[in-house]
Amino acid sequence: MKKVALFAFRGDLSCFIHVLLNAIDFREKDYEVQVILEGEATRLVAELAKKDNPMHGLFEKTKALGLIAGVCKACSHQLGSQEAAVAEGFVLLDDMHGHPGMAHYMNDGFTVLIF
Fold first, then answer.
1. Of 92, 75, 108, whose CA–CA distance to 9 is shortest?
2. Where are the alpha helices (DSSP H) in 38-81?
3. Which of 29, 32, 39 is nearest to 7 (CA)?
4. What count of Cα atoms within 13 Å lies in the side-chain half-sphere of residue 86?
5. Which residue(s) pair with 93 in the sheet?
6. Which end of the chain, N or C, is less surrounded by CB atoms within 10 Å?
């Protein structure tokens, strides 16, 4: 099976929307997909969780498909977004000194893409 891990670092909503769109597109094309929120992107969880956000439906669809692997534990703590991540039910990823590492994804056959 083809596999892709999408690491989102930027806190720019328009960039992150493309991560979500690509994740869904990859899934529809029979890829195994994992979205990992790192850095400033961890702040977007609280914003997208708001039902009045125009991109809330896309966020919910991505979640419902199980495409979000988790959120960086260190970055979400540092940036004050950990509570929102936990409230959304996301796993806090910390296998690389408090951050989600890329190596294990590559070892598991994933192509890693960074946004």
1. 75
2. 44-49, 56-64, 73-78
3. 39
4. 7
5. 72
6. N
Assessment of whether the complete model's pTM goes beyond 0.90? yes
Helix, coil or strand: residue 91: coil
CB atoms under 10 Å from CB of 76, counted, come to 27
Q: Which residues contact 12 (CB under 8 A, 6 or more apart)?
A: 40
User: What does each of the 115 residues of the chain score in pLDDT, given as a tens digit?
Assistant: 899 999 999 999 999 999 999 999 999 999 999 999 999 999 999 999 999 999 999 999 999 999 999 999 999 999 999 999 999 999 999 999 999 999 999 999 999 999 9
**Nearest in space to 12 (alpha carbons), one of 54, 40, 50:** 40
Query: Residues 17, 40, 50, CA angle at the centre, nearest 5°?
Result: 55
Task: Supply 57's token pair.
Answer: 């439906």
